[in-house]
Each structure stands twice: as C-alpha cells, then as structure tokens.
Amino acid sequence: xxxxxxxxxxxxxxxxxxxxxxxxxxxxxxxxxxxxxxxxxxxxxxxxxxxxxxxxxxxxxxxxxxxxxxxxxxxxxxxxxxxxxxxxxxxxxxxxxxxxxxxxxxxxxxxxxxxxxxxxxxxxxxxxxxxxxxxxxxxxxxxxxxxxxxxxxxxxxxxxxxxxxxxxxxxxxxxxxxxxxxxxxxxxxxxxxxxxxxxxxxxxxxxxxxxxxxxxxxxxxxxxxxxxxxxxxxxxxxxxxxxxxxxxxxxxxxxxxxxxxxxxxxxxxxxxxxxxxxxxxxxxxxxxxxxxxxxxxxxxxxxxxxxxxxxxxxxxxxxxxxxxxxxxxxxxxxxxxxxxxxxxxxxxxxxxxxxxxxxxxxxxxxxxxxxxxxxxxxxxx
Length: 381
What we know:
This protein has 14 helices and 12 strands. By secondary structure, it is an alpha/beta fold. It folds into 2 domains: 3-242, Aspartate Aminotransferase, domain 2 (3-Layer(aba) Sandwich), CATH 3.40.640.10; 245-378, Aspartate Aminotransferase, domain 1. The strands form 2 sheets. The protein has a 7-stranded mixed beta sheet, sandwiched between helices. The chain has a 5-stranded mixed beta sheet with strand order 8-9-12-11-10, covered by helices on one side. Helix 4 (99-109) links the parallel strand 2 and strand 3. Helix 2 packs parallel to helix 9 (232-242) and helix 3 (74-82) packs across helix 4 (99-109).
C-alpha cells in the first residue's frame, strides 16, 4: 500500500455498529466487563481507547513500523522514551535540537543520574569521540530544529548498534511522508503529532513508533502507569489531519523551496538554511535520505543584532509570530527568545543559533503572497 492510501485508510475502518466512515470518538473512561477480566479488549481509558488504537495503527503504518504508542504531547513521548533508561546511563544527542528536548534532558533527567553529551552529528566522528562505556541511546533530530542540519541516520544506526546502543530519531520536521527512520536502521521514531501530522494547529499530541516488542512494552507501561495519554477527541483530530498529510506536505515543500530561493538572493539576508538548496552543506544527503525537503526554512540577517530580527518578526502580515510549526498557516519565530530560550546563550551561539536567526514554518498559502510579505518585512531593517 502506497503512502497516500495509507494516510487515508490505515487504522481506519467503518464503525461496525453504524457504518460511520469516520472513526468514532469513544468518549468513555471505562468499559463494561462480562466477568472479571473478560472484556472486549478495553478495560480502562488510560490504558487504551478504540480511537487511540486507530491512531496508533495509522501512525505505525505511516512509519513502516509494527507498533506505535500515542502520548498527550511530543514532550510526553520524549519523556516516555527517557524513562526506559536507568541512572548512570549516557545519551549522546544532537547539539542543535529543540529547546524543549534540551530542557527535559538537562533539568529533569540529569537530576536523576542520566548523563548527556551534545555533539554536532553532521560529523559522525563526533559521536565516536563522545562515546562512553555507559552510552545507551543516541538522540537524533534530522532535519534539526532550527538549523535544519541533516544527520546520516543509517550511518548513526550502524555506529550505535555495533556498540550496543539504541537510536531514536525525532522525525517531526520531516514527517513520515518525507523520511522513514526505521527503514534506515533507527530503533525508535518520535513525533510531536501537534505539528505536521495534525496539521491544523488545533491539537496537542505525541507518538513513538518502533518495531521492537521490548520498547513498545516499556512505552505502553508508561502510558498505563504515568498516564500522559491523549484524549479520544485529540486522537480523532489527529486521524483527520493525517488523511491529508501527503497533499499538505507537497504544498509545504513547494512553497518552502520558493521562499528559500527568494531569501537566498535577498541583500539583507546573510544566509539561508533549507535542505532543498544546493548550498545546503548536506544537500546530497537530503536527496538520498528524504523524498523532498520539508516546509521549514531558517535564515539569519546580515544585521546580526537582535533588534533587527525583532523588527522583521514584528512586521510580517501573513506569517504569524507564534510558537509551533507544521500548520496550514505560515508562522515566523525567533529561536533565541521563543523555542530555544531554555538553552543558555553561550551554548546557543556555539551551536550556531545566533540572535538574528529566524525560523519559518511555511504554510500552504499562495507562495507569491508569502514572498511579498517577507520582502516588505525585510525592508523594515
């Protein structure tokens, strides 16, 4: 079954009771049992729910995985993965990663005895130099947030597995439409389903997909025990969003390419980072690893003062200044003060996140209108 067909049909079947083509919202906290322990596969809403089951089946199919576990947010999904580790374990993570992931690693899990090393994974040698006898997990973002660096997932998986560690890939930016990390050797794929999978900025969610029975057993234990699960309405909205993922991503990619090319030739822009530009340092890897290049674009101004970035950020009319990404509407953000504010400034600068760095989530509007909006905003600098 090809991707577009899976997006529309995987995990979704007509309701056997009524024939309803859309998965019902099973708004229930508990389920009647015929006798103690005798039930129809569901016993309590925190443990499982038919709407959630349909979502998990859909997500697993999209990522070419056997199992999926849905969570109440992307951070809850990351948290569930980290809870499979033990005090004394070591994690090697991408150095330019989402600020919320950094915050969770550093302010929560370091207190519980898990060690973290952040490296530039565009250099595989950096992973080997950071390796320790207690390294248990490699945490990858590709493309990274917000610099859109690419990591060779297959190579990282080969390095990790040869040394007994697992690989988790945050695939939020690429989505399963553009990239399937499990096919490249990763053990876990993590999503903030809030973003492109939902696609309409109206739901919060997260998910982990895997082929490994031991990993899914641990993740489902976390669902049951710590309870960070999505409600049935959230699952319904995500299922609805997934049905159009392929057509939305095509337009996101088309628009982002045009926006990136415009910015690359603008006299007030210092540099642009987009995997679809030949100037991108991992352009050839992007062509090999991804089916297209995504809807995210980052750029920095020649005037590297934060005041210049703020002027641009405050001047757009169509690009809304807001957190998040992946909705049908275009968003503009400032990593230094928004999504990556949790990372100390000196660490941000070392990773390449300057004060004038601007991140765009390019929506599905008309590209000419989006370019015109950016042009008039840049003229304010």
